[in-house]
Amino acid sequence: MKKLHVNKIFFLFTILFINKIEAQNLEPNNSIFDIFNYQFEYYSKIRNKLFKDMSDNPIIRLVVKPSFSSEYIFQIEKDNNNEYLAKLNIANKSIWYNKEIEKIIVNQHVAKISENDVNLLKVVYLSIIDKVHHPIKESIGIDGTTYNLSAWKTGLKSGEIWSPNDSVNKTIINITEELINETKQGKVSISLSDKNRTILKKISQEINDSKNIESYKLILKVKEIIENNKSFYISKLINNHKFGLESFLYDFEKKMLLELTFNNLNIDYIKNLIKEYNEHFMDIIQYDTNKDEVENLDEYKKNNRLDNIFLKLESELK
């Protein structure tokens, strides 16, 4: 039977020579069901004050919450004339713990921006939002700024970061802040500088390259687990099931490579694929077993249900 092999030399070469990018990951935004009462009150005040005249479906959005100065929101949206507008709402005083919220004035500034700049910003925002996950190591800060970044992709995708100290997120936010300053100056239209366009394109490319490297590493790990355990699990099976498992593993690897080619292969995709193929394999064990080849049919089914190569893959990838 033919097998689809991953070229390990190619992957190792890629891992060694493609420039890697080091960045903090954004964290998930806090759910309304999980936050403290004081957070709920604060976020509600921000939404009621700063979101006035802002679209619910912006292309990108940045909400900025400094510790001791005024909060503001910057977003880019499309108007009824299909023009791209950059909107900036700034509170004249800090909303945080302000007992006279009704006296706070929000100043709005609007400027036009080109479609090319918008698309580039959206690509970069989504590239870092796609890496959102809970922090491995918790950190607590008092004096700093929290940034909530959002971008549209079949609904708003978002994440937050507190006072970024890495080059990637800090650069993206600084470039956005330059656009914010231009908008605040009352300009009719704003634009990315040539230098910032080049920087954002490089960041986007490097993030995509780093995703590919992680995908290659993931495939190598999966193949290593399969190769180290395949003979053992095949030896436990009757003849027609041996061929069935070989066929499943071939298709399994083929689907991984197709996902790598056309999308960003990730651990969640592989876990779902493992679950799918485990179910197919158990259907064969359950309903396509030759009784003449099995001494104890119930024991055979039970053993394969509790211990097979797909369950091994699942446990090793946790």
| Main β-sheet, spatial strand arrangement | 4-3-2-1-5-6
Q: What would you call the structural class?
A: alpha+beta
Average residue-wise pLDDT: 87
Taken as a percent bin, the fraction of beta residues is: 5-15%
Shape: elongated
Structural domain tally? 2
> What is the first-to-last residue Cα distance?
30 Å
- As residue ranges, the low-confidence spans are 1-22
- Count of distinct strands: 6
| Relative helix content | 40-55%
Number of DSSP helical runs = 9
| SSE pattern | HHEEEEHEEHHHHHH
Gyration radius (Cα, Å) is 26 Å
Secondary structure elements and their pairing?
Elements (H helix, E strand, L loop, with lengths): L7 H10 L19 H14 L9 E7 L5 E7 L5 E8 L14 E7 L2 H15 L15 E8 L3 E7 L4 H18 L9 H42 L3 H24 L4 H21 L9 H10 L2 H8 L2
Antiparallel strand pairs: 1-2, 1-5, 2-3, 3-4, 5-6
Task: Please provide a written account of the structure.
This protein is α+β, with helices and mostly antiparallel strands. The protein folds into two domains: 31-192, no CATH class; 211-316. Helix content is 51%, strand content 14%. It contains nine helices and six strands. The chain has helices at 8-17, 37-50, 115-129, 167-184, 194-235, 239-262, 267-287, 297-306, 309-316; strands at 60-66, 72-78, 84-91, 106-112, 145-152, 156-162. Strands 4-3-2-1-5-6 form a six-stranded antiparallel beta sheet. β1 (60-66) and β2 (72-78) form a beta hairpin. α3 packs parallel to α5, α5 (194-235) runs antiparallel to α6 and α5 crosses α9. The two termini are 30 Å apart. Residues 1-22 have low confidence and may be disordered.
